[in-house]
From TrEMBL:
The lineage of its organism: Bacteria, Bacillati, Actinomycetota, Actinomycetes, Kitasatosporales. It comes from Streptomyces oceani. Belongs to the class-III pyridine nucleotide-disulfide oxidoreductase family. InterPro entries: FAD-bd_OxRdtase (IPR050260), FAD/NAD-bd_sf (IPR036188), FAD/NAD-binding_dom (IPR023753), FAD/NAD-linked_Rdtase_dimer_sf (IPR016156), Pyr_nucl-diS_OxRdtase_dimer (IPR004099). Its cofactor is FAD. The keyword NADP does not apply. Keywords: FAD, Flavoprotein, Oxidoreductase, Redox-active center. Residues 163-182 are annotated as: Disordered. Residues 7-329 form the FAD/NAD(P)-binding domain. It comes from the Bacteria. GO terms for molecular function: oxidoreductase activity. This is Flavoprotein oxidoreductase.
Length: 487
Protein backbone atom coordinates (compact mmCIF):
# COMPACT_ATOMS: atom_id res chain seq x y z
CA UNK A 1 0.00 0.00 0.00
CA UNK A 2 1.42 3.38 -1.05
CA UNK A 3 2.26 5.85 1.71
CA UNK A 4 0.16 9.01 1.60
CA UNK A 5 2.15 12.08 0.64
CA UNK A 6 2.31 14.61 3.46
CA UNK A 7 2.04 18.36 2.99
CA UNK A 8 4.34 20.79 4.77
CA UNK A 9 3.08 24.39 4.80
CA UNK A 10 5.52 27.19 5.62
CA UNK A 11 4.45 30.74 6.44
CA UNK A 12 7.31 33.10 5.58
CA UNK A 13 10.00 32.59 2.97
CA UNK A 14 13.14 34.16 4.33
CA UNK A 15 15.94 32.65 6.43
CA UNK A 16 14.03 30.24 8.68
CA UNK A 17 11.28 29.32 6.26
CA UNK A 18 13.40 28.52 3.24
CA UNK A 19 16.22 26.93 5.26
CA UNK A 20 13.58 24.59 6.71
CA UNK A 21 12.14 23.92 3.26
CA UNK A 22 15.54 23.20 1.72
CA UNK A 23 16.65 20.90 4.54
CA UNK A 24 13.34 19.01 4.52
CA UNK A 25 13.62 18.57 0.75
CA UNK A 26 17.13 17.13 1.11
CA UNK A 27 15.75 14.49 3.46
CA UNK A 28 12.42 13.71 1.81
CA UNK A 29 11.52 13.40 -1.86
CA UNK A 30 8.64 15.23 -3.55
CA UNK A 31 6.79 11.89 -3.65
CA UNK A 32 6.94 11.72 0.15
CA UNK A 33 6.56 15.37 1.09
CA UNK A 34 4.88 18.27 -0.69
CA UNK A 35 6.30 21.62 0.42
CA UNK A 36 4.20 24.77 0.03
CA UNK A 37 5.60 28.11 1.23
CA UNK A 38 3.63 31.36 1.39
CA UNK A 39 5.38 34.75 1.28
CA UNK A 40 3.39 37.99 1.34
CA UNK A 41 6.29 40.11 0.07
CA UNK A 42 8.17 40.44 -3.21
CA UNK A 43 11.42 38.77 -2.13
CA UNK A 44 12.51 35.49 -0.56
CA UNK A 45 15.78 34.20 0.89
CA UNK A 46 17.59 37.51 1.27
CA UNK A 47 19.90 39.12 3.80
CA UNK A 48 18.06 41.85 5.70
CA UNK A 49 21.29 42.41 7.66
CA UNK A 50 22.93 43.63 4.46
CA UNK A 51 20.39 46.38 3.76
CA UNK A 52 22.35 49.24 5.43
CA UNK A 53 25.45 48.32 3.40
CA UNK A 54 23.41 48.30 0.18
CA UNK A 55 21.90 51.69 1.07
CA UNK A 56 25.38 53.05 1.83
CA UNK A 57 26.84 51.74 -1.43
CA UNK A 58 29.23 49.09 -0.08
CA UNK A 59 26.98 46.51 -1.77
CA UNK A 60 26.23 48.01 -5.19
CA UNK A 61 23.43 45.71 -6.36
CA UNK A 62 20.29 44.73 -4.44
CA UNK A 63 20.32 41.28 -6.01
CA UNK A 64 23.62 40.52 -4.28
CA UNK A 65 21.60 40.27 -1.05
CA UNK A 66 19.37 37.54 -2.48
CA UNK A 67 20.67 34.06 -1.67
CA UNK A 68 18.19 32.15 -3.84
CA UNK A 69 15.39 33.31 -6.13
CA UNK A 70 11.83 31.93 -6.07
CA UNK A 71 12.54 30.21 -9.38
CA UNK A 72 15.53 28.41 -7.88
CA UNK A 73 13.41 27.18 -4.98
CA UNK A 74 10.69 25.97 -7.34
CA UNK A 75 13.29 24.10 -9.38
CA UNK A 76 13.94 22.06 -6.22
CA UNK A 77 10.27 21.07 -5.94
CA UNK A 78 9.38 23.69 -3.35
CA UNK A 79 6.06 25.34 -4.22
CA UNK A 80 6.88 28.92 -3.26
CA UNK A 81 3.91 31.27 -3.67
CA UNK A 82 4.98 34.91 -3.60
CA UNK A 83 2.71 37.86 -2.76
CA UNK A 84 0.42 35.46 -0.94
CA UNK A 85 -0.59 36.34 2.59
CA UNK A 86 -1.82 33.91 5.22
CA UNK A 87 -4.78 35.62 6.89
CA UNK A 88 -5.97 32.91 9.30
CA UNK A 89 -4.70 29.77 10.99
CA UNK A 90 -7.10 26.98 11.97
CA UNK A 91 -5.07 24.76 14.30
CA UNK A 92 -7.88 22.30 15.04
CA UNK A 93 -8.63 21.85 11.34
CA UNK A 94 -4.93 21.88 10.31
CA UNK A 95 -5.40 24.47 7.57
CA UNK A 96 -4.44 28.05 6.66
CA UNK A 97 -6.44 30.66 4.77
CA UNK A 98 -4.65 32.74 2.15
CA UNK A 99 -5.19 35.63 -0.18
CA UNK A 100 -3.10 36.62 -3.19
CA UNK A 101 -2.06 40.25 -3.30
CA UNK A 102 -2.53 42.25 -6.48
CA UNK A 103 -0.40 44.95 -8.03
CA UNK A 104 -1.80 48.02 -6.31
CA UNK A 105 -0.34 49.77 -3.27
CA UNK A 106 -1.71 51.04 0.02
CA UNK A 107 -5.48 51.37 0.21
CA UNK A 108 -5.73 50.69 -3.51
CA UNK A 109 -4.15 47.24 -3.29
CA UNK A 110 -6.40 44.51 -4.63
CA UNK A 111 -6.35 40.91 -3.47
CA UNK A 112 -8.02 37.59 -4.17
CA UNK A 113 -9.19 35.21 -1.46
CA UNK A 114 -7.75 31.77 -2.20
CA UNK A 115 -9.60 29.88 0.53
CA UNK A 116 -8.14 27.24 2.84
CA UNK A 117 -5.03 25.10 2.33
CA UNK A 118 -4.75 21.98 4.54
CA UNK A 119 -1.46 20.90 6.09
CA UNK A 120 0.01 17.90 7.85
CA UNK A 121 2.94 19.87 9.23
CA UNK A 122 3.23 23.63 9.67
CA UNK A 123 6.20 25.98 10.07
CA UNK A 124 5.69 29.51 11.35
CA UNK A 125 8.51 31.75 10.09
CA UNK A 126 6.67 35.06 10.20
CA UNK A 127 9.67 37.10 11.35
CA UNK A 128 9.47 40.43 13.15
CA UNK A 129 7.83 43.76 12.51
CA UNK A 130 9.56 47.11 13.06
CA UNK A 131 8.45 49.20 16.00
CA UNK A 132 6.43 52.09 14.58
CA UNK A 133 5.29 54.34 17.43
CA UNK A 134 1.97 56.21 17.12
CA UNK A 135 3.63 59.60 16.67
CA UNK A 136 1.92 62.49 14.90
CA UNK A 137 3.29 62.47 11.34
CA UNK A 138 4.57 58.87 11.44
CA UNK A 139 2.81 58.18 8.12
CA UNK A 140 4.23 61.22 6.33
CA UNK A 141 5.94 60.71 3.00
CA UNK A 142 9.66 60.16 3.49
CA UNK A 143 9.37 58.20 6.76
CA UNK A 144 10.88 54.74 6.31
CA UNK A 145 11.56 51.54 8.21
CA UNK A 146 14.25 49.15 6.97
CA UNK A 147 13.00 45.71 8.00
CA UNK A 148 12.63 44.17 4.54
CA UNK A 149 14.23 44.40 1.12
CA UNK A 150 11.10 46.21 -0.09
CA UNK A 151 11.56 48.72 2.74
CA UNK A 152 15.14 49.24 1.64
CA UNK A 153 14.10 49.79 -1.97
CA UNK A 154 11.46 52.33 -0.92
CA UNK A 155 14.05 54.23 1.13
CA UNK A 156 16.55 54.15 -1.71
CA UNK A 157 13.91 55.49 -4.11
CA UNK A 158 13.30 58.41 -1.73
CA UNK A 159 17.03 59.08 -1.41
CA UNK A 160 17.39 59.15 -5.18
CA UNK A 161 14.73 61.87 -5.43
CA UNK A 162 16.82 63.98 -3.05
CA UNK A 163 20.11 63.45 -4.87
CA UNK A 164 20.94 65.61 -7.92
CA UNK A 165 21.83 63.43 -10.89
CA UNK A 166 25.41 62.20 -10.74
CA UNK A 167 26.22 63.95 -7.47
CA UNK A 168 25.56 61.40 -4.71
CA UNK A 169 27.93 61.43 -1.74
CA UNK A 170 28.74 65.16 -1.48
CA UNK A 171 27.62 66.67 1.86
CA UNK A 172 27.28 70.06 0.17
CA UNK A 173 24.79 68.81 -2.39
CA UNK A 174 21.38 70.43 -2.27
CA UNK A 175 18.18 68.46 -2.10
CA UNK A 176 16.34 67.24 -5.15
CA UNK A 177 13.91 70.13 -5.00
CA UNK A 178 16.67 72.40 -6.25
CA UNK A 179 16.09 74.96 -3.47
CA UNK A 180 19.72 75.12 -2.35
CA UNK A 181 19.20 73.55 1.08
CA UNK A 182 21.58 70.88 2.39
CA UNK A 183 19.94 67.47 2.64
CA UNK A 184 19.12 66.31 6.15
CA UNK A 185 18.29 62.85 7.44
CA UNK A 186 17.04 62.03 10.92
CA UNK A 187 17.43 58.51 12.27
CA UNK A 188 15.17 57.69 15.22
CA UNK A 189 16.86 55.07 17.38
CA UNK A 190 20.56 54.37 18.00
CA UNK A 191 20.63 50.60 18.16
CA UNK A 192 22.27 48.38 15.54
CA UNK A 193 19.99 49.44 12.69
CA UNK A 194 20.05 53.11 13.65
CA UNK A 195 23.84 53.24 13.90
CA UNK A 196 24.39 51.31 10.67
CA UNK A 197 21.83 53.40 8.78
CA UNK A 198 23.30 56.67 10.05
CA UNK A 199 26.66 55.72 8.57
CA UNK A 200 24.99 54.66 5.31
CA UNK A 201 23.26 58.05 5.03
CA UNK A 202 26.53 59.89 5.71
CA UNK A 203 28.06 57.88 2.87
CA UNK A 204 25.22 59.05 0.62
CA UNK A 205 26.01 62.68 1.41
CA UNK A 206 23.33 63.54 3.97
CA UNK A 207 23.73 65.57 7.11
CA UNK A 208 22.60 63.08 9.72
CA UNK A 209 21.07 63.48 13.17
CA UNK A 210 20.45 60.43 15.36
CA UNK A 211 17.87 60.72 18.15
CA UNK A 212 17.57 58.25 21.01
CA UNK A 213 16.02 58.17 24.47
CA UNK A 214 18.93 56.26 26.03
CA UNK A 215 21.96 57.74 27.78
CA UNK A 216 24.32 56.57 25.02
CA UNK A 217 23.92 55.08 21.54
CA UNK A 218 23.93 51.29 21.34
CA UNK A 219 21.83 50.42 24.37
CA UNK A 220 22.88 46.83 23.65
CA UNK A 221 26.11 47.91 25.39
CA UNK A 222 26.62 49.33 28.85
CA UNK A 223 26.85 53.13 28.86
CA UNK A 224 30.62 53.18 29.50
CA UNK A 225 31.10 51.20 26.28
CA UNK A 226 28.44 53.08 24.32
CA UNK A 227 30.36 56.34 24.85
CA UNK A 228 33.04 55.02 22.48
CA UNK A 229 30.38 54.47 19.83
CA UNK A 230 29.13 58.03 20.30
CA UNK A 231 32.67 59.37 19.82
CA UNK A 232 33.08 57.39 16.58
CA UNK A 233 29.73 58.60 15.25
CA UNK A 234 30.59 62.21 16.03
CA UNK A 235 33.99 61.80 14.34
CA UNK A 236 32.09 60.66 11.24
CA UNK A 237 30.06 63.87 11.27
CA UNK A 238 26.87 62.42 12.75
CA UNK A 239 24.99 64.59 15.24
CA UNK A 240 24.10 62.30 18.16
CA UNK A 241 21.33 63.48 20.47
CA UNK A 242 20.62 61.16 23.41
CA UNK A 243 18.10 61.30 26.25
CA UNK A 244 15.72 62.88 23.73
CA UNK A 245 12.19 61.52 23.30
CA UNK A 246 10.70 62.08 19.85
CA UNK A 247 7.21 63.58 20.10
CA UNK A 248 6.30 64.46 16.51
CA UNK A 249 7.30 64.16 12.86
CA UNK A 250 6.30 67.37 11.12
CA UNK A 251 5.22 67.40 7.48
CA UNK A 252 4.93 70.17 4.90
CA UNK A 253 1.71 71.09 3.12
CA UNK A 254 2.35 68.28 0.60
CA UNK A 255 2.50 65.66 3.33
CA UNK A 256 6.28 65.17 3.15
CA UNK A 257 8.43 64.93 6.26
CA UNK A 258 10.29 68.17 6.95
CA UNK A 259 11.35 67.97 10.61
CA UNK A 260 11.40 65.83 13.75
CA UNK A 261 10.54 67.27 17.16
CA UNK A 262 12.42 65.80 20.14
CA UNK A 263 12.98 67.26 23.60
CA UNK A 264 11.45 70.55 22.49
CA UNK A 265 13.95 70.96 19.63
CA UNK A 266 13.09 70.74 15.94
CA UNK A 267 15.56 68.85 13.74
CA UNK A 268 15.28 69.37 9.95
CA UNK A 269 14.59 66.20 7.98
CA UNK A 270 14.19 65.53 4.28
CA UNK A 271 14.00 61.84 5.13
CA UNK A 272 13.34 60.00 8.40
CA UNK A 273 14.56 56.46 9.12
CA UNK A 274 13.05 54.41 11.94
CA UNK A 275 15.60 52.28 13.76
CA UNK A 276 13.72 51.76 17.02
CA UNK A 277 13.84 47.98 17.02
CA UNK A 278 11.52 45.10 16.18
CA UNK A 279 8.90 42.91 17.83
CA UNK A 280 7.93 39.32 16.98
CA UNK A 281 5.28 39.12 14.25
CA UNK A 282 2.92 36.70 15.95
CA UNK A 283 -0.54 38.02 15.04
CA UNK A 284 -1.57 34.71 13.46
CA UNK A 285 -0.18 32.76 16.39
CA UNK A 286 -1.95 34.96 18.94
CA UNK A 287 -5.26 34.66 17.11
CA UNK A 288 -4.79 30.88 17.04
CA UNK A 289 -4.05 30.89 20.80
CA UNK A 290 -0.57 29.43 20.42
CA UNK A 291 1.75 29.91 23.44
CA UNK A 292 3.61 33.24 23.57
CA UNK A 293 6.30 34.49 25.94
CA UNK A 294 6.66 37.77 27.80
CA UNK A 295 8.27 39.45 24.76
CA UNK A 296 5.43 38.29 22.49
CA UNK A 297 7.42 35.56 20.73
CA UNK A 298 6.31 31.98 20.22
CA UNK A 299 7.52 29.44 22.77
CA UNK A 300 9.06 26.23 21.46
CA UNK A 301 10.89 23.18 22.74
CA UNK A 302 14.51 22.42 21.84
CA UNK A 303 13.40 20.82 18.56
CA UNK A 304 11.72 24.17 17.67
CA UNK A 305 8.29 22.56 17.95
CA UNK A 306 5.65 24.94 19.32
CA UNK A 307 4.88 23.90 22.86
CA UNK A 308 1.84 21.66 23.06
CA UNK A 309 1.53 21.22 19.28
CA UNK A 310 3.01 18.09 17.72
CA UNK A 311 2.80 19.21 14.08
CA UNK A 312 3.68 22.92 14.34
CA UNK A 313 7.22 24.31 14.39
CA UNK A 314 8.40 27.92 14.61
CA UNK A 315 11.71 29.72 14.29
CA UNK A 316 13.51 32.95 13.52
CA UNK A 317 12.50 36.40 14.66
CA UNK A 318 8.99 35.30 15.70
CA UNK A 319 10.18 33.07 18.58
CA UNK A 320 11.76 33.42 21.99
CA UNK A 321 14.75 31.20 22.70
CA UNK A 322 16.54 30.07 25.82
CA UNK A 323 19.26 32.41 27.06
CA UNK A 324 21.96 30.00 28.22
CA UNK A 325 23.43 32.57 30.61
CA UNK A 326 20.32 33.76 32.44
CA UNK A 327 18.32 30.57 31.91
CA UNK A 328 15.30 32.59 30.76
CA UNK A 329 13.46 32.90 27.41
CA UNK A 330 14.61 35.86 25.36
CA UNK A 331 13.72 37.45 22.01
CA UNK A 332 16.76 38.17 19.84
CA UNK A 333 16.21 38.95 16.15
CA UNK A 334 19.35 37.80 14.33
CA UNK A 335 19.87 36.09 10.99
CA UNK A 336 22.36 33.64 12.50
CA UNK A 337 19.70 32.23 14.80
CA UNK A 338 17.04 32.21 12.07
CA UNK A 339 19.15 30.11 9.71
CA UNK A 340 20.01 27.62 12.46
CA UNK A 341 16.36 27.35 13.45
CA UNK A 342 15.49 26.54 9.85
CA UNK A 343 18.08 23.79 9.68
CA UNK A 344 16.79 22.24 12.91
CA UNK A 345 13.15 22.45 11.83
CA UNK A 346 13.90 21.02 8.39
CA UNK A 347 15.77 18.09 9.90
CA UNK A 348 12.89 17.29 12.26
CA UNK A 349 10.20 17.68 9.62
CA UNK A 350 12.31 15.53 7.32
CA UNK A 351 12.32 12.61 9.73
CA UNK A 352 15.59 13.22 11.57
CA UNK A 353 16.18 14.79 14.96
CA UNK A 354 18.00 18.01 15.75
CA UNK A 355 17.87 20.58 18.54
CA UNK A 356 18.64 24.23 19.10
CA UNK A 357 19.94 24.47 22.68
CA UNK A 358 19.82 28.25 23.05
CA UNK A 359 21.86 31.42 22.65
CA UNK A 360 24.28 33.62 24.56
CA UNK A 361 23.34 36.86 22.80
CA UNK A 362 26.36 37.40 20.56
CA UNK A 363 26.25 40.34 18.15
CA UNK A 364 28.74 42.46 16.23
CA UNK A 365 28.51 45.70 14.25
CA UNK A 366 30.65 48.67 13.26
CA UNK A 367 30.79 52.43 12.81
CA UNK A 368 33.31 53.34 10.13
CA UNK A 369 36.36 51.33 11.32
CA UNK A 370 35.22 51.02 14.94
CA UNK A 371 34.11 47.45 15.68
CA UNK A 372 31.41 46.87 18.30
CA UNK A 373 30.68 43.48 19.86
CA UNK A 374 28.91 41.94 22.81
CA UNK A 375 27.90 38.53 24.13
CA UNK A 376 26.16 37.39 27.28
CA UNK A 377 24.62 39.77 29.80
CA UNK A 378 24.92 43.50 30.32
CA UNK A 379 25.04 44.86 33.87
CA UNK A 380 21.32 45.69 33.86
CA UNK A 381 20.47 42.20 32.58
CA UNK A 382 22.63 40.55 35.24
CA UNK A 383 20.87 42.59 37.92
CA UNK A 384 17.46 41.70 36.47
CA UNK A 385 18.43 38.02 36.60
CA UNK A 386 19.25 38.40 40.29
CA UNK A 387 22.94 37.62 39.82
CA UNK A 388 25.68 39.00 42.09
CA UNK A 389 28.52 39.93 39.77
CA UNK A 390 31.79 41.77 39.30
CA UNK A 391 32.42 44.08 36.36
CA UNK A 392 35.90 44.93 35.09
CA UNK A 393 37.22 46.99 32.19
CA UNK A 394 40.65 46.85 30.54
CA UNK A 395 42.28 48.57 27.60
CA UNK A 396 44.82 46.79 25.44
CA UNK A 397 45.93 46.68 21.81
CA UNK A 398 44.91 44.60 18.83
CA UNK A 399 48.56 43.80 18.02
CA UNK A 400 51.83 43.78 19.91
CA UNK A 401 52.38 47.35 21.06
CA UNK A 402 55.58 47.70 19.04
CA UNK A 403 53.99 46.40 15.83
CA UNK A 404 52.99 49.07 13.24
CA UNK A 405 49.38 50.32 13.37
CA UNK A 406 48.56 48.78 16.74
CA UNK A 407 45.34 50.35 18.05
CA UNK A 408 43.55 50.37 21.39
CA UNK A 409 40.49 48.30 22.26
CA UNK A 410 38.35 48.29 25.38
CA UNK A 411 37.12 45.01 26.86
CA UNK A 412 34.48 44.81 29.58
CA UNK A 413 33.85 41.53 31.37
CA UNK A 414 31.19 40.41 33.86
CA UNK A 415 31.56 37.37 36.11
CA UNK A 416 29.40 35.81 38.82
CA UNK A 417 30.83 36.37 42.30
CA UNK A 418 29.69 33.04 43.78
CA UNK A 419 31.03 30.75 41.04
CA UNK A 420 33.40 32.85 38.94
CA UNK A 421 31.29 31.93 35.89
CA UNK A 422 31.64 34.25 32.91
CA UNK A 423 28.43 36.27 32.44
CA UNK A 424 29.17 38.65 29.60
CA UNK A 425 31.76 40.46 27.48
CA UNK A 426 31.67 43.70 25.49
CA UNK A 427 34.47 44.76 23.14
CA UNK A 428 34.88 48.04 21.26
CA UNK A 429 37.94 48.84 19.15
CA UNK A 430 39.47 48.91 15.71
CA UNK A 431 40.62 46.05 13.46
CA UNK A 432 40.38 42.66 15.12
CA UNK A 433 38.21 43.77 18.03
CA UNK A 434 34.81 42.58 16.87
CA UNK A 435 35.42 38.91 16.19
CA UNK A 436 37.37 38.50 19.42
CA UNK A 437 33.97 38.33 21.08
CA UNK A 438 33.63 34.82 19.65
CA UNK A 439 36.20 33.62 22.20
CA UNK A 440 33.84 34.77 24.93
CA UNK A 441 30.80 33.31 23.16
CA UNK A 442 32.39 29.86 23.20
CA UNK A 443 33.39 30.29 26.86
CA UNK A 444 29.83 31.31 27.76
CA UNK A 445 28.34 28.36 25.90
CA UNK A 446 30.72 26.02 27.71
CA UNK A 447 29.90 27.58 31.09
CA UNK A 448 33.55 28.44 31.75
CA UNK A 449 34.77 30.47 34.69
CA UNK A 450 36.93 33.52 34.13
CA UNK A 451 39.75 31.68 35.92
CA UNK A 452 39.51 28.86 33.36
CA UNK A 453 39.54 31.41 30.54
CA UNK A 454 42.95 32.71 31.60
CA UNK A 455 44.48 29.39 30.49
CA UNK A 456 42.91 29.34 27.00
CA UNK A 457 45.49 28.49 24.33
CA UNK A 458 44.87 31.31 21.86
CA UNK A 459 46.91 32.01 18.76
CA UNK A 460 49.68 34.59 19.04
CA UNK A 461 51.96 36.47 16.69
CA UNK A 462 52.80 40.20 16.91
CA UNK A 463 50.70 41.18 13.84
CA UNK A 464 47.59 39.62 15.44
CA UNK A 465 47.73 40.25 19.19
CA UNK A 466 49.91 41.04 22.19
CA UNK A 467 51.41 38.01 23.92
CA UNK A 468 48.50 38.31 26.37
CA UNK A 469 45.39 38.65 24.22
CA UNK A 470 43.03 41.43 25.38
CA UNK A 471 40.32 38.87 26.21
CA UNK A 472 42.76 36.99 28.45
CA UNK A 473 43.88 40.22 30.13
CA UNK A 474 40.22 40.97 30.87
CA UNK A 475 39.71 37.43 32.20
CA UNK A 476 42.71 37.78 34.54
CA UNK A 477 41.35 41.04 35.93
CA UNK A 478 37.86 39.57 36.34
CA UNK A 479 39.25 36.46 38.07
CA UNK A 480 41.16 38.67 40.49
CA UNK A 481 38.00 40.67 41.22
CA UNK A 482 36.07 37.45 41.91
CA UNK A 483 38.74 36.32 44.38
CA UNK A 484 38.73 39.69 46.12
CA UNK A 485 34.94 39.56 46.49
CA UNK A 486 35.18 36.12 48.09
CA UNK A 487 33.91 34.02 45.15
Amino acid sequence: MATRRERLVIIGADATGMSAASQARRLRSPEELEIVAFERGDFASYSACGIPYWIGGAVPDRDQLIARTPEEHRARDIDLRMRTEVTALDVAGQRVRTRRLGTGTGDGQDWTDEGWTPYDKLVLATGARPVRPPLPGIDAEGVHGVQSLSDGQALLDTLHTLEPAGRSGDTNDTNGAGDGRPRHAVVIGAGYIGVEMSEALIQRGFRVTVLDQAEQPMSTLDADMGELVRDAMCDLGIEVVTEAAVTEIRADDRGRARAVLAGGTEYPADVVVLGIGVRPETTLARDAELPLGDAGGLLTDLAMRVRGHRNIWAGGDCVEVLDLVSGRPRHIALGTHANKHGQVIGANVGGGYATFPGVVGTAVSKVCDLEIARTGLLEEQAEHAGLRYVSTVIESTNRAGYYPDATTMRVKMLAEVRTGRLLGVQIVGREGAGKRVDIAAVALTAGMTVEEMTALDLGYAPPFSPVWDPVLVAARKAARAVRERGG
